[in-house]
Amino acid sequence: MKAELCQFCLRSGMLCSKCKKKVEKGEVSQLDLEVGRLLISIEDKFPPLQDVYLHKVVEADGVLAILVNQGDIAKILSYGGKIIKLLEHKTEKTVRVLEYKSDERKFLEDLLAPMSILTINRIWLPDGTTETRVILKGREKRKASKYFKALKEIARTAQGMALRIEFAA
């Protein structure tokens, strides 16, 4: 597995001077280090993890969002979801895998999966800010409504996106 931190630091848990500076500057969080170490510890059992690039980990209200390179989502979701289940068991959080720097629609589809997005709109507010309004199928309201607060926070932290989630009638 590749990450913002070097392999030595991820494997040993001790930070070299270069990686220590990244942590001090806030480029890498303690959560990034913990999840990176966890992924590196299981990459022998799951070889596709060796090619995954971990950019960032965001946590909000019991939901952990792992931001990886484009195309790496399939590698983490392989093995019938065993990697995700293992991460959820070890961290005791719900895990979402998202593409780092992906376009808005792809990001929202990954974030809100398995719910179906009907429409995405941009709303300009009088104070000059914008919100992204996502309209989902109405019958899926129960599936993830308990996670909406966390998903909105992840969208704000990962993409700088103010998110409004609504349901079609």
Give an overview of the whole structure.
The chain has 169 residues and is an alpha/beta fold. The protein has two domains: 1-101, GMP Synthetase, Chain A, domain 3 (2-Layer Sandwich), CATH 3.30.300; 102-169, GMP Synthetase, Chain A, domain 3. It contains eight helices and seven strands. The protein has helices at residues 7-12, 17-25, 30-42, 73-77, 82-91, 104-112, 141-144, 148-159; strands at 2-3, 53-60, 63-68, 94-99, 117-124, 130-136, 163-167. The strands form two sheets. Strands 1-2-3-4 form a four-stranded mixed β-sheet. A three-stranded mixed β-sheet has the order 5-6-7. The longest helix has 13 residues, at 30-42. The protein is globular and about 50 Å long. The mean pLDDT is 87.
Short description:
The protein is an alpha/beta fold. It has two domains: 1-101, GMP Synthetase, Chain A, domain 3; 102-169, 2-Layer Sandwich (GMP Synthetase, Chain A, domain 3), CATH 3.30.300.
